[in-house]
Amino acid sequence: MGDTLEICSHHVKDIRKCLKEQILKPTNSIRGHSKAKTHVLDLMSRTLKVGESNSALLIGPRGCGKTTLINSVLDELQRDVYFNDKALVVKLNGLIHTDDKLSLKDITRQMQLENVVGDKVFGSYSENLTFLLESLKSGERGISRATLIILDEFDLFCTHRNQTLLYNLFDVAQSAQAPICVIGLTCRLDVTELLEKRVRSRFSHRQILLLPEEGEENTFTKIASDLLTLPKSKVKHVHKKAIEHWNTSIKKLFSNVEVVSVLEQLMDISKSERILRNFLVCVVSCLKENHPLLGEDDFILVSKNFVGVDAKVQMLEGLSILELCLVIAIKHLNEIYDREPFNFEMVLSQYKKFVCKQSTVQGVERNAAMCAFECLQRLELILPAAKGSMKVKTKTGNDKAYQKEYQLFYFPVISDQVMDAVRNYKDLPTEISQWASSSLV
């Protein structure tokens, strides 16, 4: 075991380099989404093989794999040796091509029409558009090369003046002339509402939804385990025993509850695989010659810096012990009364119950407890349940103010945040931490 560890230390730079390449390398292989991929593949195949023009929108949240799916389909189509003779692929991005003029120039360049147009490619927009449309419409179905146009950030193309480019592309796709397939990628569900009426009438209204898939294969734990496992065939200058030892340590690492919890927390924030890959690069950067294997501490440390520290937890950690005790009492009240509003008297009563059961905990005076309660209010850790002054009408018609002890509040902090603060609080008496995690008092 010691010899194997020594080998890992000796080759830690090569292992770290290999892992970073494996995590960061562009990939066109997509996990899941088989139905959506089949749908897109079918559309493009019909355009290539039958000469059928199509248009569609691929809709899904950012990071769900829309671009990867398109690239995966194109890779599959390119396995045909005649693909380059049958098809032209044009890719545009709404973040780059901010108006129709820029879009048109890039379409002309990607379709290799500069030599045909000559100086006119830098002429007026209308001349270039007319030439492009004539080029697209001059072909014959089943004979001409198919044009596959991918419009990433499709919703941004809808902001172009008069949506001229979209209108003409959809118009060509609707005609029975040269085969063309226009596929827009967007994260907006209401994207068709952004289209002008004349553009919408020429769109096929075919929408393919790409939603994050559930299942063990798509969890961050499974993906991270695959990305951090070393392939035996691709790692150069690293002994096989070192690779075996590394893979064994990774397998053991992902059976750790803390590591799985960190990855689940990251997945709750975002289901984007891009976020996970960025996170794993930071984790791999922790590898050093004197630290050749990853541990749960690396994941926890990177998680704090990567995900960020909860501001409310930080505020709770800065409270005095008395103030934290009142927060714990409020937490128990929320659990008892299902987050119903509470007042100072209820909190103080809950705190006194705890003090009576713990002989080692010294009680405090009522005024001190009220000062601590008011401090929680100033920090906005408790918020008034009713707006305005706390007044009621008496029988005589006069306003009478409530005593501040009975003013109702609610607690905008969840139990997990309180428990995180309790765990991180320095030199907190054991009785208080046990009270926080115990059943209701």
TrEMBL record:
Q: Name one GO molecular function term.
A: DNA replication origin binding
- Gene3D superfamilies recorded: P-loop containing nucleotide triphosphate hydrolases
* Gene Ontology annotations for the cellular component aspect, listed alphabetically: cytoplasm; nuclear origin of replication recognition complex
Alphabetized, the UniProt keywords read: ATP-binding, DNA replication, DNA-binding, Nucleotide-binding, Nucleus
Q: Where is the AAA+ ATPase domain?
A: 52-213
**Localization per Swiss-Prot or TrEMBL:** Nucleus
Question: One biological process GO term for this chain?
Answer: DNA replication initiation
Family membership: Belongs to the ORC4 family.
> Per its UniProt record, what InterPro entries does this chain match?
AAA+_ATPase, ATPase_AAA_core, ORC4, ORC4_C, P-loop_NTPase
Subunit field text: Component of ORC, a complex composed of at least 6 subunits: ORC1, ORC2, ORC3, ORC4, ORC5 and ORC6. ORC is regulated in a cell-cycle dependent manner. It is sequentially assembled at the exit from anaphase of mitosis and disassembled as cells enter S phase. Interacts with DBF4. Interacts with POLQ.
What this protein is called in its record is: Origin recognition complex subunit 4
* Residues in the signal sequence: none
